[in-house]
C-alpha cells in the first residue's frame, strides 16, 4: 500500500468517526434532554402550535404556515434532485474536473476510479436528501387535512395524532437538511481527503452551535 493510499484511509476514517460521533451525541441529547437542543425546542413549539390551532380553530393560520413549510421543502427537494443528477453526470464525464480536483489534492490517492466513487457517493447523499424532503411534503399534506377536522373525540385526528405526524414530517425535513450539510464534506473530498477532514471539523463546530439554538 502506498503512502498516499494510507493517508487517504486514515483521513477519511477520521472524518467518518468525527461526524458519526457528533450525531450520536446529538441523538442522545435529544432523547434525554430535548429542550437543550434546537430539535427538541421546535418539537415542543409545534406541539403548542397544534394545541392552539385546534382549540381556537384557526384554520387559515394553519394552512398558511403549512404552505410556507411545503414551499421550502419543495424547493429543497428540487435542488437536491438537480444536484444529484449533476453529480452522476459529472462522474461519467470527468473531463477537466478531475484535473482541477487532482491539482488541489495534496495528500491522498489520485485515481479516476476513486474520483468517480466520490461523485457517486455525493449523488447518493443528495438522492437520500431528495427522498427525505418528499416524505416531509407527504406528512405535511396529511397534517393539512388532519388539523382542520377539529374532532377531539376521534383518536386518529386528535391533537396528539396531528402533532405526531407534524413532527414526523419535521424529522424528515431535518434529515434532509443534514444531507445538505454533510454534502459539504463529500464535496471537499473531491479536492482531497485533508480538505474533507478540515471541512468536517468546521462543519461540526457550526452544527454544535446551531443544534443548541432554536
Rg measurement, Å: 21 Å
What series of H and E elements makes up the topology? Answer: HHHHHHH
Structural classification: mainly alpha
Kindly state the percentage of residues in helix. Answer: over 70%
Continuous helix count: 7
Quick one: biggest sheet?
A: none
Principal-axes geometry comes out as elongated
State the gist of this model.
It comes from Desulforapulum autotrophicum (strain ATCC 43914 / DSM 3382 / VKM B-1955 / HRM2) (Desulfobacterium autotrophicum). This protein has 214 residues and is mainly α.
Q: What can you tell me about this protein's structure?
A:
The protein contains seven helices and no strands. It is mainly alpha-helical. It has one domain. Helix 3 runs antiparallel to helix 5. The relative contact order is 0.16.
Question: What descriptors fit this protein?
Answer:
214 residues, 0% strand
Secondary structure layout plus pairing:
Blueprint lengths: L2 H30 L5 H19 L2 H34 L4 H8 L7 H35 L12 H31 L3 H18 L4
Helix pairs in contact: 1-7, 2-6, 3-5, 5-6, 6-7
Keywords: Membrane, Transmembrane, Transmembrane helix
Organism: Desulforapulum autotrophicum (strain ATCC 43914 / DSM 3382 / VKM B-1955 / HRM2)
Protein name: DUF599 domain-containing protein
Amino acid at each position: 500500500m502506498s503512502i498516499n493510499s494510507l493517508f487517504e484511509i486514515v483521513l477519511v476514517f477520521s472524518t467518518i468517526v468525527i461526524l458519526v460521533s457528533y450525531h450520536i451525541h446529538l441523538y442522545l441529547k435529544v432523547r434525554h434532554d430535548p429542550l437543550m437542543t434546537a430539535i427538541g425546542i421546535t418539537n415542543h413549539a409545534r406541539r403548542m402550535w397544534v394545541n392552539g390551532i385546534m382549540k381556537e380553530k384557526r384554520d387559515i393560520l394553519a394552512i398558511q404556515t403549512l404552505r410556507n413549510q411545503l414551499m421550502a421543502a419543495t424547493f429543497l427537494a428540487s435542488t437536491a434532485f438537480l444536484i444529484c443528477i449533476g453529480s452522476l453526470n459529472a462522474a461519467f464525464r470527468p473531463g477537466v474536473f478531475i484535473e482541477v480536483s487532482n491539482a488541489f489534492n495534496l495528500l491522498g490517492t489520485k485515481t479516476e476510479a476513486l474520483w468517480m466513487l466520490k461523485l457517486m457517493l455525493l449523488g447518493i447523499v443528495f438522492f437520500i436528501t431528495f427522498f427525505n424532503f418528499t416524505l416531509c411534503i407527504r406528512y405535511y399534506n396529511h397534517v393539512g387535512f388532519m388539523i382542520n377536522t377539529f374532532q377531539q373525540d376521534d383518536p386518529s385526528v386528535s391533537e396528539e395524532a396531528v402533532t405526531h405526524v407534524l413532527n414526523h414530517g419535521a424529522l424528515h425535513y431535518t434529515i434532509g437538511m443534514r444531507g445538505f450539510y454533510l454534502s459539504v464534506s463529500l464535496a471537499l473530498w473531491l479536492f482531497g481527503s485533508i480538505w474533507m477532514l478540515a471541512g468536517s471539523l468546521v462543519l461540526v463546530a457550526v452544527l454544535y452551535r446551531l443544534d443548541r439554538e432554536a
